[in-house]
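Lecture 7, part 2: worked example. A protein chain together with 5-O-phosphono-beta-D-ribofuranosylamine.
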Amino acid sequence: MVKNRTCVFISGQGSNLKNLIYHSRDNNFPIKICLIASNNKNAYGIKYAQKYKIPYITFNTQLKNYNNKILLNLRKHKISFICLAGYMRIISPNLIMKYKNRIINIHPSLLPKFKGLNTFSRMLKNKEKRAGCTVHYVNKKLDSGNSIVQKSFFIKENDKVSNLKEKTQRLEYKAFPEAIIKIFRNKTNS
Ligand code: GRF
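Predicted complex, written out as structure tokens:
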């Protein structure tokens, strides 16, 4: 199978990145992770780039030319697909245009509910019945692109932010690879 050359953007722990690296080592999984990009040079997730010998870049979004650095590297590594996995910055409109329908994000809520940050505390405050995660396409509006895969669970009375996060992440490790398979399966069929 010809694998789609992918860049994963991270900002922190990188547990979704680790999970995607694990899946991408399977010959039948449609992506190969060829670049990791982080706005945080101290992100724990960079350790996975080092461990699995995957090229990586770090950049500072306060600097004017950071976007050029990203674009140059995406070109250099012939990247055709982008996964945002805990990337805590906005993607520039320029990059969204260049990679139209080829950037996906994982978000810890059942979108369109609870876009943005602090999803779990807002869910609890709102006395939601269900929590979950959404893998969706990235467009110019925050957390608003079409949904690809969604997974949910019932919130229990004694759930707190910390265990909601844990339960959600467990679902994320299934939802992200599933979404990637779904995207490329549809592409081959169309
Ligand atoms: C994930 O829970 C994801 O939903 C959110 O950020 C978190 C990143 O976790 N966007 P990790 O860095 O993959 O461990």
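The chain is about 35% helix and 25% strand. Residues 10, 12-16, 45, 85-86, 106-108, 133, 169, 172 surround 5-O-phosphono-beta-D-ribofuranosylamine (CB under 6 Å). Keep this in mind for problem set question 3.
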